[in-house]
Amino acid sequence: PRRTLAEEIPQALLKLWPDNWFAPKLVLPGVLTFSGSSSGGKGAEPEVLDEELEGFSRRLRESGQAEELLNGFPLWVMADEPGFVAKSLDNFLWVTFTRSDPARDVHGIFAFTERKHWGCRGPLVIDARIKPHHAPPLESDPDVVKRVEALAAPGRPLHGLF
Fold this sequence. Notes:
Elements: H1 11-16, E1 22-28, E2 31-35, H2 46-63, H3 66-70, E3 75-78, H4 82-87, H5 89-98, E4 106-108, E5 111-114, E6 117-120, E7 124-127, H6 142-151
């Protein structure tokens, strides 16, 4: 295997963690989610996240532990609610791939451009925070839920369908 995926977040990594990144959680082995600056404010701009990642990369490099701390985490996802993202695979997939734009929201630790090709030597970081242009979350209307559940009761037309 190329690497062993981490199953817990090392304390040494948390000590170097940026002050404006919060609540790092393990989603799956090797996949980390965390929250950052609010998506509605200055921190939502891709350039701001790039600067934060550069600063974090510098601190990691200076610590001399970069490879050891990062090798087990090939994917990081910045999200508004890391607890929700880490709760299930469905939540992780939904948030990561419906709230990110590959042209704008893909970053990396130790990022570089070589002959017009972007890459990163550390984790790939996807910004999956809610952006101002996103539609509001879809939430169930409690009255509609009650009416549908009543139709799904035994003896009713939707019984056994869900």
